[in-house]
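dumping this here before i forget
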Amino acid sequence: MRAGRRLAIGVGLGLGLGGCSGSQSALDAHGAQASALRDLMGLFTVVCGTVWLLVLLALAVAVWRRRASGREPAEPGATSERRLGIVVGVAVALTVLTITGLTFASYRTTRGLTGIADEGVTIRLRGYQWWWEATYQDQAPERVFRTANELRIPVGRPVRVELAGVDVIHSFWVPSLAGKQDIIPGRQNEITLKAERPGIYRGQCAEFCGLQHAHMAFLVIAELPENYEAWRSAQLRAAEPPADPEAARGRDVFLAKSCKACHAIRGTPAGGVLGPDLTHVASRETIAAGLLPTTRGSLAAWVADPQTVKPGSKMPLVPLDADELRAVSAYLASLK
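structure:
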């Protein structure tokens, strides 16, 4: 059993940690909010760089004049003091104007970051140590479903993301689409995402939240509206019964072990809510919050010993022999 577990971990890790792909740069903007923040950073960089160059120029002129005169500076007279007073006054006024202008630009930009999504797309996102639960809301209860560590959104439509914390403070950040927004237990925050073109955008928890903070990533996949609606319809369906005998045995093992106490698979007796919903887990790009690509080897590695893959995670070790592990990984890989 241990040999099988070590083999599964080796196969999964061999596929590459950090399987989460996609753009994650505030300078690579693909949304209106991200573009506004990029322009704000450019403004700050230009203004501060100009001030720095002017200070260096003034210093260089003073040093050059001191060396050119070749003598100790004389005591300033009344005229010199007046001139120096004017220079200092102008410098202070310019400094106040610069800081005021930058403050106003920052306020104006950040004020527009929380738009209103009036297109009916609302996602409730919960941050846990260390993964993300996304619940797609709808007025009809039967059209509400849960997924994990991945957001699918339609291109060109504003999406309201309601943020809620469960354990500690997290921070939602998709640099290519929007700014940061804290997730604080007991407080409701929200942010609006709007992608201008299809693509995969990497997000990250931006608030230190514990041992695996660096491994609390997610993907935002922006699709054309028709592709998004097709994906949503597929997510609403229950899991298909496994056709492969090995996957069918894996389903039986999954339901016989403690897995069903934490995870839900719609269409089966598994209805746990403590861990991610696994109904369509194989359709996601990654598992373990962006740590591993979704392959059968990665699934086996994660189930075999999650504490080796992600130390400190809340996923417990479920005792499985080698045959059971192969069967469970086959079943999970079939949930598309």
